[in-house]
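ok so heres the complex, two chains, lmk if somethin looks off
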Amino acid sequence: MTKILQVKDLELSFHTFAGEVKAIRGVNFDLNKGETLAIVGESGSGKSVTTKSIMRLLPESSSEFKNGEILFNGKDLTKLPEQEMQKIRGKDISMIFQDPMTSLNPTMTIGKQVMEPILKHQKVSKAKARKVAIELLAMVGIPNAENRYKMYPHQFSGGQRQRIVIATALACNPQILIADEPTTALDVTIQAQILELMKDIQKKIDTSIIFITHDLGVVANVADRVAVMYGGKIVEIGTVDEIFYNPQHPYTWGLLSSMPSMDVNEEKLYAIPGTPPDLLFPPKGDAFALRSEYALQIDMEEPPPFFQVSETHYAATWLLHPQAPQVEPPAAIIERMRTFPGSRYYEATGGRA
Amino acid sequence: MVKYIGKRIIYMFITMFLIATATFFLMQTLPGSPIASYSKLNDTQKAIVEKKYGIDKPTPVQYAIYMKNLAKGDLGTSFAFKGKSVNDLLASRIKPSFILGAQAMVFGTIIGILLGMLAALRQNTFWDYGSTFLAILGTSIPSFVFAALLQYYVASQWHLLPVGLWNDGWKSSILPSLALAMGPLALSARFIRTEMIEVMSSDYITLAKAKGANKFEIAFKHAFRNALIPLVTVLGPVAAGLVTGSLVVEKIFAIPGIGEQFVSSIMVNDFATIMGTTLFFSAFLIVVIFIVDILYGVIDPRIRLAGGKS
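and the predicted structre for the whole thing:
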């Protein structure tokens, strides 16, 4: 598998009046060609900031790369001059935002907005760009694209607007598509349609997708691999099956337990207690320790390194240290682990085939 | 759209009718009369003059006659300028006023917009503070102070431009236009700055950046038109400000414009001329507000459609 993007030891801070907010505190991941990597985590975990920093969309005046590199085609994006970055944005890496109601320019026809990256990055005539834009709109499922091409965003529904944003993002066949919660603002039926559309498109143009979401149901649907972020760090990363059926980090346990499930008959939905850490004063040890009932003494002192669970599965928790005591994950998690070959609760007979 | 415009035009006539009526009766409550200054006349002579101008009749009759003439476009005869009709008086004075107003409006808004853009795009720098300072000056200092300052320095001390009157062609219009332009300039600069900062932080601007647009394209192709929308709404009041500003500024520069005419006709209680100028200014404002509303639709497609439906 070819690695198309490598993020190494990325650290990024925001300078605010209150002080330095360490929004990303050492993030490592690779993105392979053609795969979908989901980044999950609660609000403020740094998932959006991580992807915005890949595209360098954060305000230059207040954000600062403290350490690390983002390697794309051998180039370190953190050090690229702005003009070089403009050639990459919208051409090699493009982005879809959360709220389609606000991410289109209200005073510009949608045709112009879809055409913009084509005219910007490819040496083509306006007529040709228009043709491509109409094809793109038709591809993402805008009916009657030739006529609707000249319409304004307010004449489209939320789902259609998100399709238009997707068409714009695909205009130059990007190698990486970053989708920042693209379905969060849409209702459930439209969500499903947009997810289908994105999967279709990925097959067609063989792009890699970074999919940010806090909806684990969406993750199971679209992702090949999952990175779980907490407090500005990735705490666990692995394939979808590994994260869903053999999770190792207590935070991942908490996330999965707080997902409504058909199998569990509990009356009350689980919620992770406490609040996310204040990244103005990040905790010394494991950022999740204060909210975790599985926290060890060392979690308060020193941040855990990544322990390898399998070739593709890593988790940053001291629980995986050889000297750590064995703890019982929550019942719902054990239930999941029973079905996963290779987990310590795997039951060969009871597992789902 | 045609229906909308038709409706608006009917409303404009109704507004004019109401303004004419209100002004007429307000005028009747003023102390003094147009012939009060003719102190040499005895009572019989006064009665003759009053009869000549029709002000001996009861107020409702006067009103009926005035409105009938107004409907025909006749604004009556001036009391102060003997034998001249108000229509002729105004016609000869429209040009200087129009030139001053138009120049002040165009210059003020364009420079104001540029300053506002500069301030927003270079937020918290010298440019931002400088343009904000200028905007505060322009808002808080009345135009007649600028007029006096410009006259004193540019005209009287440095002898660059004429100090007043309307004898030097375009040159005569520069200083009064500048004095008038400070208001619109300050207002546009403040509006555009606030709005640009707001627009620049919106999602579609981030998306434009994510598409690879450079700073220039983002500011002018994407942000500018959206930032312009609220400014268009205040252009009506700005035009109103220009009208009131022109009353004073034209007087200071001794420019034979409508504003100057208005002020001098008030001084001598020249009823017909006061009515005429008031109606003229009102008509001007109503038309400007109408144009602004149409412009609003041109700039913002969302409004255009809403207007079309009604």
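quick notes: The radius of gyration of chain A is 21 Å. thats all i got rn
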